[in-house]
Write a structure and sequence with these properties.
8 helices
Length: 177
């Protein structure tokens, strides 16, 4: 099978997982804590590369909003699309291009952590811009708390599960694509 076709099919799989996980976790509160959309986007970027991670990151929150309705399109799904695009892009880009460490595992963790930090900064910047533009939402501190405190269990779960999944799938360092 052509590598590009294989990557497109696998991207569709990651997209489907990202769409299915939120309702399986049973609600928005658990979704805010676990961040189920982030898992397949980060995996897609790490396993397939930044281009596919970027696309899956943009599309997944919008599809979740349209299909399940528990993620308001404006502003949340749109902001999450940019945030998840950052996760997908930076996880893949850093993992492919930035080799600070001699072993793959260290580079994998570094890529994951950096993309998680950058994605959360993007999220906060977008909410800050919306608040400055007159969007009547919660105070900015509530968003900071949601991004960095409420989501700590999800962050820990991502750090504990994503690298082993990548290593199992990519046991020779060459990717699945």
């Amino acid at each position: 099978m052509n590598k590009e076709i294989k990557n497109i099919v696998l991207s569709g799989l990651f997209l489907a997982i990202g769409i299915i996980l939120p309702p399986l976790l049973g609600g928005s509160v658990l979704g805010q804590v676990i961040s189920p959309i982030h898992f397949p986007v980060l995996l897609c970027g790490l396993l397939l590369g930044w281009k596919y991670g970027l696309i899956v990151g943009i599309i997944t929150p919008i599809f979740v909003s349209v299909m399940w309705g528990n993620l308001p399109m404006v502003p949340l799904a749109l902001i999450m699309s940019v945030e998840c695009a950052a996760y997908g892009f930076f996880s893949g880009f850093i993992f492919e291009k930035v080799k600070l460490f001699r072993n793959m595992i260290s580079n994998l963790y570094f890529s994951l952590l950096m993309s998680m930090i950058i994605g959360r900064i993007v999220y906060l910047l977008l909410f800050g811009i919306m608040l400055l533009a007159g969007f009547n939402g919660q105070p900015f501190g509530a968003y900071v708390t949601a991004v960095f405190v409420t989501s700590i269990p999800g962050i820990i779960l991502q750090i504990l599960t994503i690298p082993p999944i990548v290593l199992v799938i990519d046991n020779n360092g060459k990717g699945i694509a």
